[in-house]
Design brief:
Elements: E1 2-6, E2 9-19, E3 26-35, E4 38-39, H1 51-54, E5 61-66, H2 71-81, E6 85-87, E7 94-100, H3 120-123, E8 139-146, E9 163-169, H4 170-190
Antiparallel strand pairs: 1-2, 2-3, 3-4, 3-5, 6-7, 7-8, 8-9
Helix pairs in contact: 2-4
Amino acid sequence: MATLRDGDLTFEFTFVRYYDPDAVGWLDIRFSFLWQGIPVFNDAVLKRSNDYWNERGPGEFLVRADIDDHLLAVLEYALASDQLVSWEPVEPDVSISLYPDFRMAHWGESGEQPGKPSDTEATATRSPDAKPSHAPNDWFTLTVVVDLYQFRGADSYGGSGPGIQMVVRRAELNDFVQQLRAEFEVLIQTD
């Protein structure tokens, strides 16, 4: 399991299973959000209508992704390029976006986030033509929106749902990606 933290908020992400029934290659993925170690989403409202949905743990979400199009490659690209990236699996249970050097409007002109340490280099606004700095203190904003199909009573994908946003440093995101890479390599080698 890979974990990414923003204060007391934790994003847990794990590759559960790799299988290749139709020569395409699929990954089953679970992820959840915890606040001080407690699931953020109420398990009572999550779908549990069959064996597939019952595999999830308390407060966890399930995703099925194509082996050639999964979150790891997208995050690695974002770290290398400092470009905005988004990922949505073939079955759109989740939409994940990563914004490098992103600033919320209410943070003010300096781009400084309340409650986060000030860092002139990390908070300076870069021009669109600037080269990636790859500094460990660069900020990244991660947004994760879970499709309503994950919830009890929903019978189709709707393109909307609840979301969580996290603001982390490049070093933290890089560590998360390394955890994912190690987990992915073990999963692929064992199957």
